[in-house]
Amino acid sequence: TVDDQDACTTDACKAGACTHAAVNVDDKDACTMDACDKATGVAHVPVTVDDSDKCTTDACDKQAGVTHTPVATDDNNACTADTCDPMTGVSHTPVTIDDGDACTVDSCSA
Predict the structure, then answer these.
(1) Beta pairing class for 56-61 and 65-70
(2) 31: helix, strand or coil
(3) Long-range contacts for 77-81 (Cβ within 8 Å, ≥24 apart)?
(4) Per-residue pLDDT averaged across 67-76, rounded?
(5) pLDDT for 4-16, tens place per residue?
């Protein structure tokens, strides 16, 4: 018989010779993992974009694939130190303004 019971092949017979050509699973989408299972056929499973880093914005473009763009940390306040920790995310810690001189009034202007 022509049908090889494999959902990953295209079956044909010509002049008594049967062929079972592999199906093309590539959907031209960089955001999916393409595969074929003999029983169920072609599948396009979305790729994982989350890198578990709170300092990046994760995305996927169908042509370019997965990207992890750094998040903005600058709050435009000169009175804070702006940082990002991959586990906890962005923080804005007040800078130390005390110069240790009791004769001065210490302050910070954002």
Answers:
(1) antiparallel
(2) coil
(3) 77/110, 78/108, 78/109, 78/110, 79/108, 79/109, 79/110
(4) 97
(5) 999 999 999 998 8
